Protein 1
Amino acid sequence: MRDFAYARPASLAEAASAFGDGGEAAFIAGGHTLLPAIKSRLRMPDTLVDLSGVPGLSGVTRDGDMLWIGAMTTHATVATNALVASAIPGLAGMANLIGDPQVRNRGTLGGVVANNDPAADYPAALMALDAVVETDRGSHRADAYFQGMFSTALDDGEIVSRVGFRVPLASAYAKFRNPASRYAVVGVFVARFADAVRVGVTGAGPGVFRWAEAEAALTADFSVSAAAKVVLSPDDLNTDIHAGAEYRAALAVVMLKQAVSQAS
Amino acid sequence: MQTRLTINGTGHSLDIAPATLLVELLRDDLGLTGTHIGCDTSQCGACNVLVDGAALKACTVLAVQLDGKAITTVEGLATGGSDADTLHPMQAAFREHHGLQCGFCTPGMVIAGIEMVRRHGHDLDRATIAHDLEGNLCRCTGYVNIIKAIQAGAKAMQHSGEPANA
């Protein structure tokens, strides 16, 4: 790989300062998106700022109806953490579908959220679970945070510190994954709250989105038969070597039914 | 970048160029060529090593990111002094059950098998093993015997008193 400078800050303030002084700088968490991007020269940073030595960025806590997960928490931890399993088992199940065991040991929530890959799993969960992304500078609601392919509300150098998920009555994630990359061809996260149902869809479009028709139908009747009647327009969906837009639209309904079945 | 690593039980303090992948450090600088490079894109698992007991892909981590950590490669599994001629129970099970054809994927498979014991205990069913091998590719398609070997190796680790968090 092309060489770069590397900083191991011990606080968020030091991290921000290393980023500011680093020319074309990038934060690195688990590195499971960034390092492949550097290898293929999609990214050519002058400086990597490693967040693993910054205290307080890992772990799971519950505060009332919010479950907070630190940005540096690995997928393996979210998949097996007892607090996650009791509060939002659908989120633990989703984490267990990311990549493979070795990837889950290394990849982090914050890395996924900052990167916003249009086929990543977590963004669907953040949308459905009405999440809050907290940073070193403030906080963002998930609805306003994700802004299309690889684009977020983060300013240059802003660091995700933790994510708060609203604890639902029930939730589940269903994913049709690409067998090689294990990214979602289509992934649907369904969360049922006392007042409404929220549905996040990843992989299908140029960025994660909420599926309004599915939310309305399931809020009225949370059942697989209600899910089966929902239609997703292929108009704004992706067509690529893996699947066409119409196929993805049909797949979204199948994933919706699976998720509702699991959450029922 | 000065970095402290414990590799197969030996402490090292190394000055490492930041862009050095762990697998490059192991193979090119330390001569530990048992950790293989298969795909170099975090798919195949031939480069799996244990870091503080957790398996990860050495092609997708920088050596400098692991400051202070303990790394176990396939060379560090056998015991028996300088000859290291007593195979780890998981290695012995791969030999006994012929869990390899060309052997290229084997170091990563052995490491993956050992970590399955850490996650699930010693009594592994075939479905669990097959699912947890999703990050390891065998191009000879020798999966049947690989699964048999991991199942037997996991049990043997219990009998040999091998800790589940090796």
Protein 2
Amino acid sequence: MGEIKDAAAIGEVGSIVCGDALKLFLKIDRETDRITDAKFQTFGCASAIASSSALTELIKGKSLDEALKVTNRDIVEFLGGLPKEKMHCSVMGQEALEAAIANYRGEAPPVREKGRLVCKCFDVTEEKIRKIAEENHLTTVDEITNFTKAGGGCGECRPEIETILDSIWTLKPPGKPVKPKKLTNLQKIALIQEIIETEIRPGLQVDGGDIELIDVDRNRVTIALRGMCAGCLMADVTIKGIQEKLRELVSADIIVEARG
Amino acid sequence: MTEIYLDNNATTRISPEVLDAMLPYLTDLYGNPSSMHTFGGQIHRKIEVARAQVAALINADPDEIIFTSCGTESDNTALMCAAESYPHKKHIITTRVEHPAVLNFCRHLARKGYRVTFLTVNHEGKLDTDLLIKEISEDTAVVSIMHANNETGVIFPVLEIAEIVTQRGAIFHTDAVQTVGKIPIDVKKLPVDMLSLSGHKLHAPKGVGALYVRKGTRFKPYIIGGHQEHGRRAGTENIASIIGLGRACELAGGNLDEEATYLKGLRDRLENTLLERCPDAMVNGDTVNRLPNTSNISFEYIEGEAILLRLNEYNICASSGSACTSGSLEPSHVLRAMGIPFSAVHGSVRFSLSRYNTDKDVDAVINVMPGIIQDLRRLSPFGREK
């Protein structure tokens, strides 16, 4: 830790307002493009200081291109884990490294400066949220807050983060796409019975009606409407409603038929 | 190595006298005070003794004291009861620096359709009573303003506030969790309608509190069930803790002035020496109207959690308003309401003393703190030390 007076590259991220900040100093061998020394100064909690220290250990001796492959996950792994609400400390390490290398190569600092600001409390852009979400497979707003702090202040941007996450994962579902569960015939009948009991019958009973499940044959569900529902002019609408409900909760191909 | 405990606004140790008073009720005297038989019924009388002890500390009548499970329950009960007792009034006034027990309950009522005014404080954490006069109206059901702030120790002018509020026909509740047992309170002179206190802040155990409700104040119970506490707070009494709270109040009342002088002496020596030995440090909050046991100091350019962890290596217990210690990403709402710069909020440390602290404890802190501050500043990218 500390400063390198004649550092070849300096990367700075965070700010005193946000509650954590990291200044990374690199010594680089111009011939080989290798990082010969790395030091840091950190304003922040123990996790921030530990993340900074891990980062310098990870990149010493690496070429710049190798170093750029170091991610926040490598930092977390090096430390043997971080509390989930402190994940943003490891992200800060990765960003400081990117900023330092960009500084050395005379490029604009990556990600942070570009893009639309989503979280105004902690200065987080849409691009950063997308990048961190994709790299770490984050699917919930709380996870985004843990990794980037976005949404952790006033909370106003949380719906926006939700929308961003939706747009990421509807294009690229995380992991395996969720397949509709294949039900055995017995399970299907039990499920239909349960839905009729808990979701459908109480509604009909309010209007003095009732329902009886008569048969289930593959996707064909036969029911009988009783009480006030029997012979009601709105019976067709009721049956359609029941079909919608079962399609939504059991299987999309269900057809409901009524027997008088 | 025993701990050097300077975090007494968070919680305090149970005093040995309190524990002694409690123990029989955790062992042999386990009866239910609501029982018909003497074995249980006799305990009822002991609860009434404790009630009188609590009442005496704030010069209330015993039947104005309701035992609760904690300060938070007392606060919630007071606000809910005031709101429900005046259903036609839809306005609440509180401050931005209240404890979450009040702050979040007011936000909860705001979601239920109440208009809530959060009064702000100045740079020293002081409240401008003109703001209150401006905001209070016929529609105001309750004004809830803390007696003293838990983070800075700043004491609010509750007497003046109480007079303004009662004159306008609203209910005045004060969260006195940090003041009961530390500074004198006399409800015969202070026209407050309800006042919350908590056991574990004055050397009684956790899990017990009390709510003072002035005679004649409309009251609706918050916890509904049996007839305990004259139907004002249901649930079988937490006997041992209630007995403990009574004894703790008795002990506090007996030494109030003496203890305040002692604590102020320790606190001032701690504070002044730290300010002398650590550059770029400052006290947060009004130093005139302040609890005798509390000192909140900001050390610029460094982060509070890092300071606490270093103090922890020496077994020194304190707390901080930094974001990293708040359990959220936001630093102390109190210091931010005061307009303290972010750099100073993150580096704030609170020391809060009790009668069990000694000069040795203060020495321990002033010996290690300057070195810790210097080390961490060397590590910080901000503000190079000269």
